[in-house]
UniProtKB/TrEMBL annotation, chain A:
This is Uncharacterized protein. NCBIfam families: MetS_like_NSS. It comes from Agrococcus pavilionensis RW1. The chain crosses the membrane at residues 6-30. Keywords: Membrane, Transmembrane, Transmembrane helix. It comes from the Bacteria.
TrEMBL record, chain B:
It is a multi-pass membrane protein. It is found in: Membrane. Its main location: membrane. The chain crosses the membrane at residues 18-37, 49-70, 91-113, 150-171, 183-206, 226-250, 319-346, 358-378, 390-412, 433-455, 467-490. This is Transporter. CDD domains: SLC6sbd_u1. It comes from the Bacteria. Keywords: Membrane, Transmembrane, Transmembrane helix, Transport. GO terms for cellular component: membrane. InterPro entries: Na/ntran_symport (IPR000175), SNS_sf (IPR037272).
Length: 42, 510
């Protein structure tokens, strides 16, 4: 593979998979609480 | 927290993880595997990441958030949510329901083909000519005519697919839709991940990756490349036709909806990248094995899945394993999408008629299964499928999304209210940037895409099919969805169904 192709493959991975990782970290670390009342009846 | 007695128990996802998995299951479908790699390759290779990322952030995730906002704030199926926003907008919801009916009818056929091809991977039933096998021996296609002669090899798996789907839908939102996604999505990731590893080890895989990622910067100056990036994001994310409205109505009030949207958006795009790597590694192998250039073997859609991949399976070491992983991935990805499409219809019927889950499921899915099998397990099924898919995507989904955005953004001007609602319990606040995107930027972009698609469809007969077939199964299907939407909005709701918007903090889903 050429250098520019490798570079863009890496950038694509970093942006899309890194973006997914950041989004997951954001939602896991968020302190918002789901309501107990609506979850008990499931 | 106010508590309100609901006329029916609509069901709900038990927590945000199930909701996110269900939304990912809906978004990740056949298009991620068989459309994205080709679109990226045609759109500048590695340089495509730029318009693709812009499309994701400017249109994809903002539109996803708009769908979430409608469903989460109004707590209803697509028709009920739009009716609660304004009585005259109810037709938009039914239009989306009708589009889902059309899509579900043919989606089951593709799942049936993929299921059969899992078995064919062992026998390599396609021999030396996968294309002749697909259209001749397997589908027994008759060009230019509508045939009611059934093809048993399609009929039997279609009946099984519908049976399994009906059982899953009857199990309900959490135990059916939610549980399916929670199980299928990790299995899909493992299966496709294994496929990518196997494909990367094939000789010629590097040539395939070189073709996919070599940047063509000049392509970024071509407006058509930007249009295809926006189109790929739009069609891939399952936005604009009621699925995400319906799913968001099943989520607890205090769930982080904006954070969830970013997870779903990036998960969908992340899977597309994985698919691109796997597919182009395999195509690189096929090119080397057949002594051709990668450009000569690149294809998309049915051609990629049922012609190119069988050729790869025939020549690759452990080809049967590659075939099972590929076609099983198609089935898994397609099934969770089919479930989400059907949920839009079942949810709407339940809300309107206040029916129980099982009764509504049977009332919706049994007639659909019969029509689906009648239309798509015949010798002309593949042509009808191809035409319906092309037209309903463009003049169904794109058009209804545009109408919905104009109605909500300009007609009843509720976008700032949605921003406030979505920001109440979420990790990412929706500010003026989001209001501007969904009110001005995205509608303009979708309108431009729609005009471009309309000009193409009118001036060039799609795939050279006869005009009457394009009229009936293409324009006819798309037009019928709109007419059905208008007609279905006429009957009044039952008096027990509240049509006013529920309070922000009302927890019981009514």
């Amino acid at each position: 593979m050429t250098i520019d192709a490798i570079l863009l493959m890496a950038v694509s991975m970093l942006v899309l998979w890194g973006g997914l990782g950041a989004a997951i970290v954001n939602i896991v670390r968020f302190k918002g609480r789901e309501p107990d009342a609506s979850m008990r009846d499931l | 927290m106010t508590q309100v007695k609901a006329p029916i128990d609509r069901g709900r996802f038990s927590n945000k993880t199930v909701f996110i998995m269900a939304a990912i299951g809906s978004a990740v479908g056949l298009g991620n595997i068989w459309r994205f790699p080709y679109v990226a390759y045609e759109g500048g290779g590695g340089a495509f990441i730029l318009p693709y990322l812009v499309a994701l952030l400017v249109a994809g995730i903002p539109l996803l958030l708009l769908d979430y906002a409608i469903g989460h704030s109004q707590r209803g199926s697509a028709p009920l949510s739009f009716a609660r926003l304004h009585r005259r907008l109810e037709f938009i919801g039914w239009w989306q329901v009708a589009i889902c009916v059309v899509i579900a009818l043919y989606y089951a056929a593709i799942l049936a083909w993929s299921t059969q091809y899992i078995g064919f991977s062992f026998t390599q039933a396609w021999g030396d000519d996968p294309e002749a096998f697909l259209f001749g021996d397997f589908l027994q296609t008759e060009a230019g005519v509508v045939s009611l002669e059934f093809v048993p090899a399609v009929l039997i798996p279609m009946a099984i697919i519908w049976l399994v789907t009906i059982v899953v839908m009857a199990l309900g939102v959490q135990k059916g839709v939610g549980a399916t996604s929670v199980i299928f999505i990790p299995v899909l990731l493992i299966a496709f991940g294994a496929l990518v590893v196997q494909a990367l080890m094939l000789p010629g895989a590097i040539d395939g990756l070189q073709s996919l990622f070599a940047p063509n910067w000049a392509a970024l100056l071509d407006p058509a490349v930007w249009a295809s990036a926006f189109g790929q994001i739009f069609f891939s994310l399952s936005v604009g036709f009621g699925i995400m409205i319906t799913y968001a109505s099943y989520v607890g009030r205090k769930v982080d909806m904006t954070g969830s949207a970013f997870v779903v958006g990036f998960a969908n795009s992340g899977f597309e990248l994985l698919a691109g790597i796997g597919v182009f590694s395999a195509l690189g192998f096929l090119a080397q094995a057949s002594g051709a250039a990668v450009a000569d073997v690149v294809s998309a859609g049915i051609g990629l899945a049922f012609v190119a991949f069988p050729a790869i399976i025939s020549q690759a070491p452990f080809g049967a394993l590659l075939g099972v992983l590929f076609f099983a991935s198609l089935v898994l990805a397609g099934f969770t999408s089919l479930v989400s499409i059907l949920e839009v219809v079942i949810s709407a019927v339940r809300d309107k008629l206040e029916m129980g889950r099982v009764a509504a499921t049977l009332a919706v899915t049994v007639p659909m299964a019969i029509v689906s099998i009648l239309l798509f397990s015949t010798r002309s099924g593949v042509i009808v499928l191809d035409i319906a898919d092309y037209f309903i995507n463009r003049f169904g989904i794109l058009l209804v999304a545009l109408v919905a955005m104009i109605a909500v953004g300009w007609g009843i001007r509720r976008v700032p209210w949605f921003a406030e609602h979505m920001s109440r319990f979420s990790s990412i606040r929706l500010g003026r940037w989001w209001v501007v995107l969904v009110t001005f930027v995205t509608p303009v972009l979708i309108a431009l895409m729609l005009v471009q698609e309309a000009v193409t469809a009118i001036t060039v007969p799609y795939e050279g099919y006869p005009a009457w077939m394009l009229g009936v199964f293409g324009w006819g299907a798309a037009g019928a969805a709109l007419v059905a939407g208008v007609l279905l909005a006429i009957p009044k709701w039952k008096q027990t169904t509240p049509l006013e918007a529920p309070p922000h903090d009302e927890e019981v889903i009514r």
